[in-house]
Amino acid sequence: MNNSYESVMARKNEIMRKSVGIDFDKFETGHISFNYEALLKEGNLSLDIIKEIQQNNGVGGTPLKECKNITALARKVAKPGYGARIFIKDEALNDSGSFKARRASISCYQAKKLGFKGVIAATSGNYGAAVASQAAKYGLKCIIVQECYDSLGVGQPEIIEKARACEAYGAEVIQLSVGPELFYKFLLLLEETGYFNASLYTPYGIMGIETLGKELIDDCLKLTGKEPDMVVCTNAGGGNLTGTARGIKKTTDKPITIVGASVNLKGLHMADDLDFNKKSFTTGHTGFGLPFIINPDRSDVPRSSARPLRYIDRYVTVNQGEVFFITEALAVLEGIERGPAGNTSLAAAFSLSQELKEDQIIIVQETEYTSAGKHHQAQLSFARENGICIYFGDPQDEIPGKSIVLPKAINMIKAIDLDLDSIRKKYLQNQFLKSNIICQTDINYLVEETNTSRDFVITELKKYNVKVED
Amino acid sequence: MIKKDTWVQIRKIVLKPEQRAKTLPEATKNVPLLMWVKGALLEDAEIGSNVNIKTVTGRIENGELICENPSFLHTYGNYIPEIHEVDIMLKKTLYGSDD
What is the pTM (predicted TM-score) of this model? Predict the structure, then answer.
């Protein structure tokens, strides 16, 4: 068999079909549309069944904790009467240390049920440890493929720690240097082993998080007698926000503001060998968040089930220095030491809480475990070794890859809103590049995809001379 | 000489620069795509030689032998004085000055 880069990429769809046990073609509808809700019913797993699978495997039921001192700190700098109560869902307490266990639990359950001997996931993040941990429970073999080193073999400390965790759970870890061709090696491994593709973007990868959305509401009601007003989700590939929002909508009719938050890594190229070790966050950043939100199907399955634009009400960014600052605050003010990447949404929530009144509630829906490498001190130390200038100042002056600016005053922590309508327009532009003829089914699909109106979609399609079939 | 069955790490060129994807940033385009993987050595060998290993899932991989008994030595990094300054700022704002 020809294993050149081009030949393997040309066999992509066939390899994918075999490795996820889903015939994605059957969900295609119009020229560009597919039936999203039908895809999310794949596997016939209700929320109750998912909860049971997770309960039996060390996942879910994590505590919701009120961050009283961080809330008090926000109130010190908020207008009088403002500063919503901040809660965190302590997802670090799942087996393997992050909410990703929810996603992995359903993928591994499904892999076992379908008779696969092993699972493979392409991830440099917590998802690797999650898949390795869940695979161990089901007696499945496991391979995790990571982008870990630059071409000189210098590894990002956070990713090295995740490799250690994957090995600790019994997985084989394939580490690669920088480049999108990781996907090529991933495809070769799927072909060689016949293992299940535990992609983050299958329906299983999303439905596993719906329980988190449900628990947020249930926990909040139990603790406060009220439902939350706002939920903040760290956003990268979009699955976290999508699954959480879906779970919330299945549990309550109350309109709860869903906010996505990413670390601002503007200017750093994700596939650049030299930029690779200049960033202090390997996930939860705009380098993934923006490309995936405007083109969700760029993932490793033909149709991604992570479609954040359907659910997101606001999309904000915070800077690296702000996230490190709030990670330290969580440790010294709340006595909860957690990994920095999971605190992206906490940094955003600290700023957003100051827009809400004191009797309102904002929930940060995850934390992640911390360890050597995966710690703000390890990351700041690594940044300094790589020539990044660390100083106190206005975080808005931070230049990713050159500086990390810790806020010199508490009131300088500011979540910055991205223009969602312009993101929606970019999403539509990508869709119109796929076909210049669309049908009514496509228009309805695009309205749902962008959570906008028919008028919004039609105005955009006219700009690109897209024809609409009768 | 490293003995057969020893746990080792190998490095392999997966794609040479000319075999890589066409749309890459300059810095990435000019270097090969490298892979590191661990497993049990299938024959006695010296560091730097081309060897076969059996990985934890039972796969056979081939590449340059670079390390015997590979260890994880990542740490919490060097002391960062700014973190201590953050603590002082947080506590002063919330609880007031100690003085």
Answer: 0.97
